[in-house]
Records
---
Amino acid sequence: MRLRLTLILLFLNVLAFGAIFYLESRENGDTAPAIPPPILTSALQQSDEIRIGGRLPEAERVLRRQGNRWLLESPYVWPANPSAVDRLFRSLLFLRAEVSFSLGEVRANNQDLADYGLADPALQLTFRRGEEETVLRVGAPAAVGQRTYLLGPDGETIHVVDGDLLAALRLELAELRRPRLFGIDFYTVERMALQLGAGTNQRMRLVTMPDGWEFEAPIQTRASAALVDARLQQLLRTTVGRLSREGEISPTETGLLEPRQRLTLEGGQERDTFLLGNPVPGEPGLAYGQRESYPTVVTVPEAPFLALAEAPTDLRDRSFLQVDLAGLETVGLSDRAGGEILLQRLGENSWEVTGVDAEGERVRYSADRAQVNRALASLVRLRAERFVSDAPSDNDLAEYGLADPQRTVSLEGGETEELLLGRFTATGGRLYAKLAGQPFVYEVAADLVRRLPVRALAWRNRILEELPETARLAEVEIVDLRNGSIVRTLDLATGVPEDPSAVAGTTRSAREILRDQLRRFRVSSYLSAAFGETVRVGEGEPLPWRYRLDATVLLPSSAEATSEVRRYWFAERRGGNLLAGGSARAEATFLLPPLFVEAWSTLLAPDRANPPTPAGPGEGAGSAAFVP
């Protein structure tokens, strides 16, 4: 009850104080000033024509609406700057008078419009819409404050307005005209056509397609979307310099009667055509130009337009081979000698290679994923280094080595493509190439052939053997096959390193590298899919085996651990990191990776702590050395 009474008294006090404040304010005449209405209505924005004259402009400016844009028609014809026109309307639509008085009051004081600078105004703006006309006159500055006299649209009322109005309405020609040559928007351009003059009559036409751009002339082929977009943006950023009315400069000087170029940009309902004339005398880098259907002559930088003369080459898509890796199923490789292999996808990143070995037998291997991925990456990145010919004759194709190509690459899956690789160019760093079914001949990097060998063995998985996760390495012996002595014995079952010295270029010991190699035996490349008493490296003489490595492997089973011996043969190390090896179990000879070659040399270094010991019976050199 007491709280309610307190709240009621508080409310009554607030009400009483409010009433006292209101009554005192009325007695003192303190009322909120009324905001005067705008001098002009929003209907002004519907005008179709604007004229800006008076004493200050050098010449009358005339702007006319064309659809949703404005055109500057005087003193020359050029698209108007939409930002400048918007600023003009905003300055007037928000204009309010601080003081207004009638022309009758002025005359009653023995004054006239001249006393306010309105008889010959600094600016006179005329807005027209059909038969309706709105005229504003901006006169002299007022005697007090930063104010200016304005004669309203009724012609009878003088307003005192903000003095900044004159600066806002006094638009220079450079502000009124659009600064850029083209008005079409980048994202709406669908076609670009170029016609070269000077007697050449060459034509170039580009059109958009779902995934980029395409040439329709002078040839029909893909264009580089990135390069075309960049060139188009450069053209759309071109700004104009001087503007000259029709007849101010002779056609002989401008060269626009027979222009050097005629460039047309189209998109939607818009079409912009520009004519490029002669260079401007004494102004390097500038040329005369003219927009079609506009009489005004302009000056522009000529470099972006001159560069278009080489567009059929510069803007052409150099990625002429389209490879869909996701849908690719098979890759076929063949050569002019009749060699042929087929790479077939088995899974997400699993491939198989089939072909014919040196004895003519059909072979099938699990393909090396890294090798396949490198080859596919080379095809995806394949670029035309030079466009050789767009219409070669049969004799040309024979000269390029493409009538009987040295390599044919067939890609199937989704879309089918066939790439033909011809002979090497005179310099040797490139070779000729083309796609079957297309006339165009290119030069491409010559190392592509090296990445696409037509030998099934070259694609064989580089992992020769791999131990199961549960398998353990035990004792390893290295036997010198010349005398049957044991050069080195290593116990890989213990954690004590036999040889703590690090291999050059790595912090790992030779023992650790050997252990990893035996668990996952990787080769650098294959020499042969057969194993014998010798090994041939390249075109050299056959080499005898010098060492044999016997590795005891413990294979746990459900009952008890069993063991087996994995054996590998090695020749003498030749020419730096060249070390040949072989496996009777895998029926292959091969070259070893450089890291293992260095570790192998370390393991064979003289060791006083472990002098060579004779091998057991039957483990010396000779035929017994090749028993698996």
Note: Residues 301 and 334 are 52 Å apart (CA to CA).
---
Amino acid sequence: MKQLFFSLLRQYLFWMVFFFILRTIFVLYHVRMVVAESIPAGEVLLSFWFALKLDTATAGYILIFPAVILFFQGFFKVDWFNKINIGYSLIIVLAFALITAVELGSFAEWKYKLNTGAFLGMNNTKEGIASLSLVHILLLFMFLVVIAGGSMWLYIRFFYMKMKERARLLVYPFIFIMIAVPSLFVMLRGGFNDISISESSAFYSNHSILNWFAVNSGYHLAVNYMESSRYKKSNNYRFYPEENAENAVNKILEVKKDTTAQILKIDRPNIIFLLMESWTADLIESLGAEPGITPEFAEIEKDGLLFTQMYSSGHRSHEGIASLLGGHPALPYTTFTANPAKFDKLPSMVRLLNKAGYHSSFYYGGQLNYGNIRAYLHHHQFEKIVEESDIDPSIPRGRLGVHDEFLYQRHIDDLKSMQEPFFSMLFTLSSHSPYDFPMEPVIDWAGNENKFINSAYYADKCLGDYFRMARQQPWFDNTIFIIIADHSHNSYKNWPLESFEYNRVPLLFAGNALKEEFRGTQNDRIADNSSMTKTILNQLGLPSGEFKWGSDLFNPYAPEFAYVVFNDGYMWKTPKGEVSYSMMWFHYYSKKFPEGTPPEQIESFMRDGKSYVQVLFQEFLDQ
């Protein structure tokens, strides 16, 4: 039985050594790119450390088949099982060597690793191949032969244990497989955490090439294939000729006059974004909720500016973060954060703020692997990113991470030493299932959402405590607070998912940097969270032209609309009406228009919504 375990362990070590060799070659080959960006050697070497988790997960997937072979080798003394293992390993080695060979020729041109787009006739592929000389092609072919041959020699000579005898007892192979399979499962999902591993575990630097150094090439290609297989490279949401759809969207986004109402007392205030996990409008009394759920928010609201018709364009945290930081409305079936190869083509509010002298930070009490958020944040070049692993292990936690009250305290402590002006986003988690917040329930009337409503009560209590601490800080008078949800959530009202009522979220501007005439007021403008980037940048007098989608919330001449995507469709709302449409079943869940609206106006309205999602998704495919 020992031989079975030792054989699997040695095969694991081989794959880790193999990935180390490939990464070393890849880094050395692109050392000029490192020098060009003046990156310290120590930061480059960290790519090998941050690669370990993803390499281990990749090895876990690879070793599933060898583990099954070893299981049968415990019963049968058959030499061809050894040949099957060697043949299988050769195929995997050739595949990884081929991927790396292609990347050695393409990475300097593309600046991202190989993905499925390379097999679909993209322009970048032609450009990459055209940039290679015949000498380069011959060298890359030699690399493939040498690496594959050399690696297999290492595998057979030093790592592979040829199984010559079957197990002495028939029970041994069963013990082996019962231990090996769970162990491999733990490896491939990145440990015992509630959230499984993603490419984010390899992202650690604001230099994107270092993050690509750390990402396992085979893992990236496989994930990219699975992600892209969820949608075709042709636009499934093509309702109209492309030119017609683009003309309609240009008209929708047209701004009659480039101006904005200034709500800030100072030119460069500190900005604190409080991103409230799953906060639906049904938690806020002034937005129609039952009283008593969020009393602290109600107190803050008295001196703030509340938007009453703000909607989240998606239903997941990574969609909300992409909308708020990059001005990207949520997409059907996929997300921007799940496609790192597209990051460099996306605009970034945080990078613009950094250039304007802001000091940026992001705080979360959980794991940023979820939805590839960490990778997306590094793309935005946050100067400081704090997540659960960066917080004192003695701090009380729930299953998902540090409770809100302790994250708020950490945030206050850190801001004491942060240079002004700063831009800091804090993302809460206590109002996320499994709702194991450290407080006894106080609400018992919410039915099927009782746990969620109580978690929101706790999150609100923490929010109030946070503001009481913040008011004691010297930076408070120079700070604007923006409180908004990452997305909505089902409530005791049990709205349909495909309704605007379900997707409505609170948006509150508060703090002493807000002009007095806006305090204690409400704004009924219809919008979704992709409008936040333009709004913030325009308030600061910074350029917002890179951000195509959404609109400035304080420009009375800007378009007024909300777009929301859900599992099989989208929703579209303006002051003229609203629709909810299934792109899978090709029917409308609902149509709401003022009585007497002419049929041609309704048809034009529905055409606008379809054009919006068509052009949005086409832009994603083209990036």
Note: The chain has a mean pLDDT of 91.
---
Amino acid sequence: MVHRLLLFIALSLSTLCGQAQVVNFSPKGMFQTEAFELSLQPSNSKYQIYYTLDGTRPTKENAMLYSSPIKITTTTPVSAVCVDADGVEYGIMAKTYIFLKDVYKQPANPEGYPENWSRKDSKTYWKGYYKMDTSVTENDEYRDLMDDAMMAIPTVCITTNIDYLFSASDDENTGGIYVHTGKDASKVGDGWERPASIEYFDPETGGKFQLNCGLLLHGGNSRNPQNSAKHSFRVSFKKEYGEGKLKFKLFEDDDAVQKFDHLVLRAGYNYTWIKNGSKSMYPQNIVQRTNAQYIYDSWAKEVQHAMGHLFTHRRFCHLYLNNLYWGLYEICEKINDNFASAYLGGEDEDYDVIDVNEMIDGTRDAYTTMYNTAMKVGAKANDNNYTKLQTNHLLDIENYIDYMLINWYIGNDDWDNNNWRCIRSRVNPGDGFKYLVWDAETAFTDVNYNKVEKKNGNPTAMMEVLKKNPDFKKTAQERIACHLTGDGILTPHRAAQLYSKIADEIDLPIICESARWGGYRVFTGESEETYTRNDHWLPRKQDLLENYFPKRTENMLSYLTKFGLFDPTRIEHINDVNAIRKPTDAVYDLQGRKVSTISSIRTLPPGVYIHAGKKFCVGSY
């Protein structure tokens, strides 16, 4: 374990990506094991350096003038700025030095941080919660795993003024965004953004960056202090803070972009250990903590990717706020016009981006046209309105069907009157509006839950009409056969295999989350137990692998048959590529274009294809 930590320290000395290095820090490594002398050197010898050690954004007026090496003995966020002879300041740089042995003993009352966070009412507050639970970090089951758990995924450090996070002031320019979350009746804090620095370090590759950015809270109900004390963040890269974009290979997928205007740091809320609920208030929520997995949304997104569709890339990380470990988070792309243009082409302003009843970007006109057209589709073949959906590039039919299959399969119970998003270009609309999985946390509740017949919002209302159209049903039959039969991504083995793969990403890091937040509901009086990896997370994972995935596909096919979208007697079993004998035979897409030969069929994207006049399905990989 010590040797592995030393390897990560060596890797962290590699070249930093991000903004220009106005101040050079030595040593460069993020993780340290012994006290050291920190040296700061300006890029121009005529500059003076001013620095802070508590996260404060440094200026000549509020920071210390650097004159000699600084003794660093514990986890410390160092911020530095260069100032020339005329008093002009150049590019704040930040560097967080982490001592894991101190992180594991993070106190309940860290120096400089307030006891109270958000106000409950006129007399009482929600108390701040900062500590790492030593009943986890020093437990015989976990003590020797802690370093590996911290180094198993990347680390993200946010550095900013403590008051920008936790000040009780309601001043829109200086108030704390963690205190004023914008979710009470006054909406104080809604949309507040604060200047900050973000650092990233990947222990596996040594990849790293540091950039100045804007920081604000992200999310809906999870911003309500009663619901969660662990909030999500949005990071914005703007010229006013420094670099206008993050340019970095953040996600491992080959199809992921490497330039970002925004990132989301998802804390998780539903089906996590932070979920509110007690025996006397919201007792139905207790099961969300006992069944917490933290990867339901991740799995749904990766399924959409495996189906061959646009999706939001993601990866887990450990997050620090200044010198405090804040828990397990997931870095995700933000769905907006910039995301759409990055993946689909064109300009940001070309796109309509819809979030249920709200506009993220663009206008709602085309979506309203699409929805109204879908709701008028008739029950006969060659229906004019169904044709319009495709010829007018209003709705990507295959994307829509696959998106519905994902949400039905997981039994997403916080959808579709909530948590759906779709995008379309007004200039080059392609196949029409594309739906994207987002915030699919309330899932996997019951293997026998028939979500197919539930109608809560626009996507399911459309399905109630479209399912009666024979042309739509034909496409639905193909998509269902592709994904829920043969070697499809929603077959028992494939679905469980993907779930295990994602679970492996946090198999060790979940221990750190347990130490940071597993005891929070004990702290609030809503629970009598601290949630842990071995007692809660691993048993629930095993339960899903043994009792959900093996049975869910068969149940889904039954529900879809009853719903009228699937006819099990009409499957041409087509995932069996080996049954097709001639490797040189041509393979065509559904538009009749030659796309491959049988010998290279496995290189095709997942979908339905034609060979010798018959359709067959290439499973998702």
Note: Residues 2-16, 573-581 have pLDDT under 50 and may be disordered.
